[in-house]
Amino acid sequence: MLKAAALPALDFRSASVARTQVSAPMLDSSFDPWIEVHRANLQHNVAEISRRAGSRPILAVIKNNGYGLGVVNAGQLLETSPSIAGLAVVKLHEAMSLRDAGVRKPILLMGPFDERNLADLIARDIMPMVYTPIGPVLDRIAAARQKPAPLHVCIDTGIGRVGVPFRQASPLVRDLAGRSSVRIEGVMMTFTEDPEFDGEQLSRFKTLCESLEKSGVKLGRKHAASSFALFQRPDAFLDMVRPGMAIYGVYSEPEFRRAGTLDLRPALSLKARVAYVKQLPKGDSAGYNRAYMAKNDVWVATLPIGHTDGLPREAAQGARIRINGALYPIVATVSASHCIVEIGAEPRVKIGDEATVFDWQEGSRPEDVNEACKTSVYDLTMHLNPLLPRRLV
Ligand SMILES: Cc1ncc(COP(=O)(O)O)c(C=O)c1O
Q: By three-state DSSP, how is residue 65 classified?
């Protein structure tokens, strides 16, 4: 085995915005898998979305650890862009971490909270997404701080998840709008992404908003469009768009990749180094349960990356790893911390070589891995282990 010192060093200093993600022991081993965050691609995707949305403001969804980038990385990188009006997360601790890290742009918390949380988050300039009769609580909080609480109201037009059902929404919105403790900054809905039903949902939302606005209720920005609607429904761009996955440069549906509507470039990659290379004689096996049998003498490489890092177990069904410019299939099984790659008749790779699970190149994009795994690109990026070091490139 090569000494770690002989390997090209990882420049963790370049990951300045990720410093909270990198602990000292990780710095010691350059064999640990890591994630690269590609700043220029992120900015390119924001520009593409802005163009598609006719320069409407973008509320960037950075939930679930910033879709793999690291929530603070995503917040810090995106907030510098003038097209980004704000950032949206689902978990309270993510909203708080963004403020702790000095992120100043508006933050919308789309997840649940209790009354004590509400006072804390309003004190930290985090807008709650509300859909229950919490007017009296907001009155008390606003009275204590002598300022109205800005918030967004979530309307359920048919997804049946969170949000006040659209048939009961009017009295709630009127109640909130009528309080001096409240400033409605926006109203929002989420599509089911069933193209047959999305039109009905949008019409329910528009009808409700029109009737409220006609009677003088100020709704702030109306927003509904996630990545799916960015491709499918320009009529849902409304006052602001609210994408997640597209910002990170990944096509959420295979047909969007071919559509030419948006040129998206993956803003994150997953990498590791070859830990071991060996020749399996014909008839030898590899992996748990002897999942792989060598049909001929064959060279295989072991990578120190597995499902605990976010590499799906299904990757052993044909996902390919890029090493020194060539793509090699993952074989056998993906275990917690290892996978095995079939190199072929010649030992074309060596210990320490960089191995790319996915990046921004054709053939090794997240969508390519996803196609082989038959999972969702959301599972791929959002399941990346938050403890993996993030490097900015
Ligand atoms: C309420 C809401 N809006 C927007 C998004 C962004 O979705 P996408 O990543 O598909 O663009 C999500 C993510 O699932 C969401 O939950």
A: helix
- What are the backbone dihedrals phi and psi of residue 314, each rounded to the nearest 5 degrees, phi first? -65, -10
Q: Count CA atoms closer than 13 A to 302's CA, side-chain side.
A: 14
Residue that is written with structure tokens 């990578």 in the block: 303
- What's the confidence (pLDDT) of residue 62? 98
67 Cα nearest atom in ligand 1: 9
The atom number, within ligand 1, closest to the CA of 243 reads 11
DSSP output for 187-207: EE------HHHHHHHHHHHHH
Secondary-structure percent of the chain, ordered helix, strand, coil, rounded to 5 = 35, 25, 40
The rounded Å distance from CA 224 to ligand 1 centre is 9
Over residues 88-139, the pLDDT tens digits come to 999 999 999 999 999 999 999 999 999 889 999 999 999 999 999 999 999 9
Q: Ligand 1: residues within 6 Å at CB?
A: 61, 110, 190, 226-228, 242-246, 252
Half-sphere CA count of 212, side-chain side, radius 13 A: 29
Q: Which residues pair with 87 in a beta bridge?
A: 60, 107
Q: Is the pTM of this model over 0.90?
A: yes
